[in-house]
Amino acid sequence: MNKIRHAFYAGLGAGLFAVSSTAQAELSAMVAVEPTSRQDAFMLSRATMESGLGKALGQQITVSKSEELADVMRATRSAEYDVFIAPAQVAASALMRGYELIGSTDPAEQYVLVGRQQVPTTRDMKGGRLYLPQQDSIYTYMARGMLNASGLSFKDLRAVQHERYPQAGLTALMLGATDATVVRRSDWEAWDKAYPGVGKVLATSGQVPGGFSVVMKKDLAADLRAKVANWFANSAITCGLKPIAARAEVAEYKAVAELGLFTPTHLPGAKVVKAADVQQLIANGTVFVDTRSEKEYKAKRVPQAIFIPYHEKSLKDVAFDSTQDDFKGLAQLDKNKPVIFSCNGAECWKSYKASRTALGQGFKQVYWFRGGLPEWEAAGLSLAKN
Q1: Where is the signal peptide (predicted)?
Q2: What is the pLDDT of residue 328?
């Protein structure tokens, strides 16, 4: 009887320990900052958010902060964080991958494509110069959308200059150093009053959720999600973040996400393959190359994948300049053997560029797994992790 009682309490203790461990599992959050919103970021205390939100949730939370939007966008594709506090395009990407919307700090706003007076219409931007912040900024998303509406792509322009601060684009416009730029409508209206007659609006975007948007994983416990939402609505001001008062329509985020440039569906010279094809090719000895970052590769990957990162600086465009990128690891592969290139799905350009580079260097059999790791996971296939 004592043995039975001892086993019962031992099992009960183990069960309670497991429940406690689960409840106390550390959460993670990422604060992603547009370079133009650095003033808001300076006001935001990461340590205060960790302590305040952690206390409200009754468990530890680690908060990171980054201005490297390309890295943050990759993190949304791999669901690296439980919560994102970020501009609209980052939130939009996360909402497509198992996250739900809490809200945003500011009302929706519009963006304008501003051109020099000598540029009649957006269509006349063909062969022109465009000034934008970094590639994954909201300004770049808006620029793509407004150009696409007129049948243009970045590849139709003579030059796309990526810098950090969009307001400097207006100065470049005034100096004749660029033909057009993208800014918030409110910034344009203030600048036009100060410098009338220098530029004009060529196109206007739809409504875009303003300020910081907050999203969290749908698969978190319901009571935990409620606590997170309540804290951001009522207590976020303690860490320097505006309260999450605005509740933009999810459709507005969807519209932003659709402006993000997806990779082409075909690649001349290579064969585009699905997860089932990849599985069979690997079984037959085809080399599978993971071109993502080392952090992503270690977190989870196709079991047989070898790590050869594609370090990307060129435009996310079919007209990308491969000389701006680094793919030196390609030299370790045999050009006469079949190879599969993969990354983080249809929005990730690394494997597309890797495939193009391999074809350009004389590889005989190139397979491009456009769906990448998200498609592999969705197919229920096994993963390897460090």
Answers
A1: 1-25
A2: 96
Q: Domain locations in the chain?
A: 2-106+210-259, 111-204, 271-378
H or E stretch covering 290: strand 287-290
The one-letter amino acid code at 247 reads R
CATH architecture of 2-106+210-259: 3-Layer(aba) Sandwich (3.40)
Pairing of strands 208-217, 99-109: antiparallel
For the chain (length 386 residues), average pLDDT per consecutive 10? 46 43 71 73 83 94 91 91 95 93 92 95 94 84 84 87 83 94 94 95 92 95 95 92 79 79 84 97 98 94 97 84 95 97 91 97 97 95 93
Could you write out the DSSP letters of every residue in 306-323?
EE---B--S-SSTT--GG
pLDDT of residue 16: 41
Nearest to 342 by CA among 360, 368, 318: 368
pLDDT of residue 163: 80
Residue 192: C-alpha distances to residues 26, 233, 311 (Å): 49, 36, 39
CATH code reported for the domain at 111-204: 3.40.190.10
- Residue 38 has what pLDDT? 57
Q: Which two structure tokens, joined as six digits, stand for 124?
A: 């006349």
- Assign 65 to helix, strand or coil: strand
Q: Can you tell me the distance from the alpha carbon of 88 to that of 311, in angstroms, rounded to the nearest whole number?
A: 25
Three-state SS for 161?
strand
What is the spatial distance between Cα 341 and Cα 69, in angstroms, rounded to a whole number? 24
- 8 A C-beta contact, residue 345 and residue 373: yes
Second-level CATH architecture of 271-378: 3-Layer(aba) Sandwich (3.40)
Residue 273's closest CA among 382, 370, 381?
A: 370
